[in-house]
Amino acid sequence: MTIWLEHQSSKEAGGIYLFQDRASAEAYLVMHAQRLKGFGIPEVNAKIFDVNEALSDVTKAVLTAGGGGRGRGGA
Description:
This protein is of the alpha+beta class and 75 residues long. The chain is built from 2 helices and 3 strands. It starts with a strand and ends with a strand.
């Protein structure tokens, strides 16, 4: 799952991604940073967070990644 973000006036864009686990998030970050460098974007700012499932349950968040069950998050 991806939620896309954009701030046009500062020419920034990003996303909130949901991954099954931290290793998948870290691997995607490496691949994505390399891909963006190929487009002439030299710097990627990223943070990886764990999902707070208890609070997410309170707001009835749907936590699925890649069609699987509950997942871990990354952004």
